[in-house]
Specification:
CATH topology of the largest domain: MetI-like fold
Shape: flat
Distance between the termini: 63 Å
CATH architecture of the largest domain: Orthogonal Bundle
Low-confidence stretches: none
Number of domains: 2
Radius of gyration: 26 Å
Number of helices: 17
Number of strands: 0
CATH superfamily of the largest domain: MetI-like
Length: 293
């Protein structure tokens, strides 16, 4: 009986109500600034969600709460706009562009961080210059190039440049590769591994957070990109992505704010879900990058 009593878990007494209330108020006071900032960030999203559930007359009035909730707005959006086509075009653009960024940027970042060769610093300087160069500077000659190749009006002018490397992704991956201990790479070289095998079997496994961050950055950029899709596929409705489609939908339904907000929620939902699913890897990749320069 003594042994059973000794091994039995001790029941923790619940603090009194006054103590719990005081702890709650202290926690709210300590995080008051963060709570205020969170409310400011969530207020527009709450306004969009509430407006999406209103009728057309309620959306044009001063009411902030829908009475009753009109869930049929989301069904009306699906019937009035080709959301599925926009989603497929956006998925094709984001998926192929992100894959191209990873395939083309990882070897370059490894060469700039772990291989010693003549002119490495000069090439890295060119990458930094490309990182600071705004895309509007080269948009006209690049557009003329794609026009001569008869690819304007398709998604290929948006996808192919991603397979030629991205300056920001190369810089981010290079900074992370510099934090990997050199002993791991030397041990692989002693075992007879070449540089390509070291990259695929050692570096990529250790750089999963940075790769996830780069992939998420690319997906968010391509999903929110409006300028380049409008430039290349603006005259081809069959190849519209979600950003262009949502803009055109808002132009057609200017006074129907409930439908516009419902369409906005449907377009935002995949990105929000993806960010929360990959939030841990994203934050880890960003915080661990740039420690060593």
């Amino acid at each position: 009986m003594t042994t059973a009593a000794a091994t039995a878990p001790l029941a923790r007494r619940k603090p009194p109500l006054a103590v719990r209330r005081r702890r709650f108020l202290v926690a709210v006071a300590n995080h008051s600034l963060l709570i205020a900032v969170a409310v400011l960030f969530l207020a527009p999203f709450a306004f969009i969600a509430l407006t999406a559930l209103m009728s057309t007359n309620q959306a044009l009035s001063s009411h902030l709460w829908p009475q009753p909730f009109r869930w049929s707005n989301f069904v009306d959006v699906w019937s009035k706009a080709p959301l599925l086509r926009w989603a497929l075009n956006t998925a094709m653009y984001s998926g192929l562009a992100t894959l191209g960024v990873l395939v083309s940027s990882i070897p370059v970042a490894y060469a700039l961080s772990r291989l010693r060769w003549r002119g490495r610093d000069a090439v890295f300087l060119v990458v930094l210059v490309a990182l600071m160069l705004p895309p509007q500077v080269s948009v006209i000659p690049v557009y003329v190039l794609w026009a001569k190749l008869h690819l304007v009006g398709t998604l290929w002018p948006l996808i192919i440049p991603s397979w030629l490397g991205d300056a920001f992704s190369i810089f981010l991956l290079r900074q992370f590769f510099l934090t990997i201990p050199e002993e791991y790479l030397d041990a692989a070289r002693v075992d007879g591994c070449g540089e390509l095998r070291i990259l695929t079997t050692v570096v990529l496994r250790l750089a999963k957070p940075a790769i996830a961050a780069v992939a998420l950055f690319s997906i968010l950029y391509t999903f929110n990109d409006y300028f380049l899709p409008l430039l290349y596929v603006g005259e081809s409705p069959h190849h519209w992505v979600a950003s262009i489609g949502l803009s055109q939908f808002r132009s057609l339904h200017q006074v129907q704010w409930n439908l516009t907000m419902a369409a906005t929620l449907l377009v935002m939902a995949p990105v929000i879900v993806l960010f929360f699913l990959a939030q841990k890897a994203f934050v880890e990749g960003v915080t661990l990058t740039g420690v060593k320069g």
